[in-house]
Each structure stands twice: as C-alpha cells, then as structure tokens.
Amino acid sequence: MEQATGQEHGHTIRVEGEKGGDITFSVQGRIALDNIGVVMPAIKGLMDEMSPSSLTVDLSGLEYLDSAGALVLVELENMARSASLAFRFVNLSQETQGIMALLDRDAISRGPLITERGASGIIEEVGDVALILFRDFVRFMTFLGELLTAVVYSVTHPRSLRWEDVFFYMKRAGVDGLPIVGLINLLLGFVIGIMASEQLMQYEFNIFLGSLVAIAMVKEFGPIMTAILVAGRSGSAFAAEIGTMKVNEEVDALITMGFDPMRFLAIPKVLSMIIVLPILTLYADFLGVIGGLIVGMSSLGLAPYTYFHEIPGSITVFDVLSVCLGAQVPVVRSSGGGEGIGGKRSDHCC
Q1: Distance from CA of residue 288 to its chain's centroid?
Q2: What is the 3-state secondary structure (H, E, C) of 285-343?
Q3: Could you tell me which residues are beta bridge partners of residue 54?
Q4: pLDDT in tens, 167-190
Q5: Residue 10 burial by CB count (10 A; 0-12/13-18/19+): exposed, middle or buried?
Q6: What DSSP line would sit under 78-140, residue for residue?
Q7: Which residues of 267-280 are buried (b: 16+ CB within 10 A; e: fewer)?
Q8: The whole model's pTM is what?
Q9: 3 state SS of 56
C-alpha cells in the first residue's frame, strides 16, 4: 500500500507498508516554520490511520529543514516511543543531522520548572504579600546600612573618593537638569499666581501676591517638585545604569578586582546629589517666584519692587535652608546603588 499527502504545502509524505504492519514515511520537500501547522496534523492523522507496529522515517528526499521542522521530527519520534513502536530515522544527510543535533531532547520532554499554582485563599495571599514586604524591607535596610558605612568611610578617607565621577554626576544631575527643573517650577509659580490673583482681586489684596507665591514655592512646591524631578530623572538614570552593569556582570567584575561597588558606584552619585540639590532647590524657588511676578505684572499691574517688597516678611532664611536640606532625603534614597526611586520629605517640606 502506498499513498502521499501534503503536496500542496511544499512537502510530501509518502506512506509505504500495510496497515498495522511495518510502515515507512518518506518525507520529501521542505519542513519549516511556515508549514509545520499542516505537517504536524498530517503526521498525527497518518499515525492514527495506519496504526503501525514499527515506523521508519526516510529523509532522503528532504530538501529543507529548519529548527521548527526538526522539532516536528522529534515530536514524531516521541509519539512513536510513547506508543512503544520500533522507530528509526534513515538516510539523514549531514545538514539534517546538524539541525537535529541543535535540539535538546531532554529539555523538550522535561516539565516546567515552576508548576502552575492553583487558586489560593485570602489568608495565603496575605501571607505571601507580607513575606514579600518583609524581604524587601530587609534588603532595603541592608542596602542602607552598607551605604551609610561607605559614606562614613569616604568622609574619613576623602582621597578614596573618585572626585572625577562626583563632578561628572554633578553636571548630569545639576547642570543638565536646570532646564526641566526651571521650566516646571516657572510654570508652577505662574499657575499659583493666576489662581491666587483671582481671589486677591476680590478683596483688593493684590499686594500680597508675592508673599503668597513665595510661601507656596519656598515651603511647599519648590522643594518637592525639585525632589520629584531629580529622583525621576537622575535617580532612575542611576538605577538603570547600575542595573545594566549588574546584568552585564560588570559589578561582579569590580568585586573580583577588589573594588567595593558601594564606594565605587554609589558614593559618587549620592555625594553629587547632596551637593547639587540645595542649589537646584534655590533655583526652583527663584523661578517659581518669577512665574508669580509675571502674573502680577500682567494681571494685577504690580511693579516688581512692590511684588518683591512683601516677600521678606513672609519668608525667613530658616525656611529656605530647611527646605534645601530636606529636599535631599528622597534623592539620597533613590540614587544610592540603583535600588529604587522615591522617598519621604522632611517636615519642612510637607
């Protein structure tokens, strides 16, 4: 008995032998990714139809085979083995043998490393979340302890610092961040001025616009917007840089060469942020006040002298210094070693 199938899809499977006896599949043409959706069902159909006692696959007529096609042949072999059939490939060319050798047959038959979990109850889910939070807390405290230890060492051994990197990151986080920090805070002061001017005009308190904008920018919006922008821009860039080094095993290479990754990578970034953040905060406060001045001059007819004259009575030097120092807290947490971004302000920033 002889029959053929699959000619219209670029391959031909010729079947030789009697049903229930010794069967030979002669595979001709090409078996590749684009036609395995047809080849595999055809093979299964022939296996069910012929019910062979032994199976021989002749690959002498095979013209093209890729890794997907080789996977089909391996699946055919597994089907025959699972049915306890005598099975063999014949007339394999060197190219076909090379393609077949690329497949890891043990990995194909091996089950998944992580079994699918069934539905879990609320108590189990709460416990899993609690364990995750606890592990994250332990990792964060470990990182924070290592960072503080490295900071103390760097302060007591200033010559161990890589000052070139400190200046480099000061430029990236400070100078390169001036445009975005300035633009956001200028617009924020402008918006606060517009909203405040509508209310002040009702009571003819136009002269207090400068005080209102200054209090809002210096005590509230200036520090927090600067911290958010720097943490989101520079902190995430630092985290991505160190994360890429971790993936490329560059951090492991530093450890092998005897360098402390915390002092080598994290300390220059943290120190540069500690230096530039107060300056960026003052810069943001100033531009926020200028944004309010634009509104005062255009909408309320205030002179610059009148606008600035009321500000010293509302803002003290302590207010400025406290928010400049308080704005450092979130970026020190976000930029140290690429562990994450975000943080918490001091009480003067709330």
Answers
A1: 33
A2: HHHHHHHHHHHHHHHHCCCHHHHHHCCCCCCCHHHHHHHHHHCHHHHHHHHCCCCCCCC
A3: 22, 86
A4: 998 888 888 888 999 999 999 989
A5: middle
A6: HHHHHTT-EEEEES--HHHHHHHHTS-HHHHHSPPSSPPP----HHHHHHHHHHHHHHHHHHH
A7: bbbbbbbbbbbbeb
A8: 0.56
A9: strand
| Helices and strands of the chain, counted as H and E runs | 16, 5
Please, what sign has the CA dihedral across residues 238, 264, 333, 222?
negative
| Token pair of 174 as six digits | 């400070």
Q: How far is CA 347 from the centre of its chain?
A: 31
Over residues 123-169, the pLDDT tens digits come to 888 988 999 999 999 999 998 898 888 888 888 888 888 888 889 98
Only one residue has tokens 């107060």, namely: 278
Instruction: Indicate the DSSP class of residue 60.
Output: E
What is the bridge-based pairing of β-strands 86-90 and 22-31? unpaired
In tens, the pLDDT along 224-262 reads 888 888 888 888 888 888 888 888 888 888 888 888 888
DSSP symbol at 234: I
**Cross-strand pairs, 58:** 26, 90
Three-state SS for 2?
A: strand
Beta bridge partners of 198: none
pLDDT over 60 at 343, yes or no: no
| Pair of tokens at residue 336 | 């140290």
Residue type, 239: A
Q: How far apart are CA 225 and CA 325, in angstroms?
A: 14
Query: Per-residue DSSP letters for 252-291?
Result: HHHHHTT--HIIIIIHHHHHHHHHHHHHHHHHHHHHHHHH
